[in-house]
Amino acid sequence: MGVAPSSYCTSRKYKSSGQLLAIRTSRSVRLSIEARTMRQLWLLLLVVGVQIPRPLPPASPASPASLTPRISIEGTVIRGRTNEPIASVRVTLRPSGISTVTDLTGKFRLEAPAGRYTLLALQDGFVLQRDSAHGVTELGMVLSLNAGQTLNNVLLSMVALPAISGHTYFPDGEPLAGAVVQAYRWQYTPFGRRLKMVRTVLTDDLGEYRLFWLSFGEYIVSASYNRRAQRAALGGRRFSP
Asked: What backbone torsions phi and psi does residue 36 show, to the nearest 5 degrees?
């Protein structure tokens, strides 16, 4: 009685495994036949010359930048009074930060989304010349452009920043080299009007000086000759006699 149940269970397990093997074999044979039939069909279509259409890739969605309406600005940067073109001037649209550089003929071209901007030209030693008729100030030109609008023949005139130059001498008329020359301007503060130093230079071996890149206005210029002022003007370095 103890052996029969064990033999019966083993027979059932083996029989179940055989059925599962037969099912798997039947499926694999059917799939193999279907795959071979499909290959034969493809070969037949290729021999006959039938073009089999291939599925097209999905169209990529347009980027937001390409859908944004654009505006265009073209113009020239010239030197005031002489009307000579100025090359290598950085022309910027603020606050977008879009910018370009003028070519050898002073021309520039900018593209940006429609909106309100300030057109500004930047060059060392120069500043925009005020033009009230066209809304140009030292801080730039305010523009408000609609989608698709093009602004041509924009003329930006720049003038050189003012400079003060001169000589310093000893009482006997000899050139004073290494003298500290400073430019001051009056500044209004909560405590009243005060003099503010805006530029400092040292004279060269001929006693000459040049205070450059100053803003337009009135200045008071002073000259002194002492070691402490020289070291301050030289950033702490000593001035060799």
From this structure: -65, -35
